[in-house]
Amino acid sequence: MPELLTHRRLDLPRPPHRFTVSFDPELFGQISERIARFLGTGKFLFWMTVFVIFWIAVNLFAVGLQWDPYPFILLNLAFSTQASYAAPLILLAQNRQDDRDRVSLEEDRIRAAQTKADTDYLARELAALRLAIGEVATRDYLRGELDRLREEVPGLRSEVEKRRIRTSFRDADDI
């Protein structure tokens, strides 16, 4: 008898319900997006039109099968039910698309900022290289200096010879 009362004790929390319903929100969102995409296609509109024409034709012309007479209240109820489910599904799909767009936009913004930072860095590096190149001797400058030296070398040789001769005379005089 005490075992039966342990399940009904008020000082203990109730055991969890055995029948819990759980669903994956991502799966539900994917299914709702598929339905919303299908509701926006020509295929859906075509088959819905065929269904409505069949419904109206049967209820107007088949006297023995008239389950929804002329004002077509049941058809209107079916349309209302379909619209009451379609609108939230479409909104859910749009919200999910907005979330994806927001994430994509943020990634694009980050990528653009990184690209701008890289571009600024490269621009600074190019400016530094241009300044450094401005201080380096160019090919034309070196050619000009070599040409000038070639012109001066014969004159320098004769001067060196003259100095050598003077130095050798001075040395001979010292002896």
UniProtKB/TrEMBL annotation:
InterPro entries, alphabetized: DUF1003 (IPR010406)
Signal sequence segment: none
TM helices/strands, residue ranges: 44-67, 73-93
Keywords noted in UniProt: Membrane, Transmembrane, Transmembrane helix
Keyword RNA-binding: no
Disulfide bond listed as a keyword: no
PANTHER family: INTEGRAL MEMBRANE PROTEIN-RELATED (PTHR41386), MEMBRANE PROTEIN (PTHR41386:SF1)
Protein name: Membrane protein
Source species: Saccharopolyspora spinosa
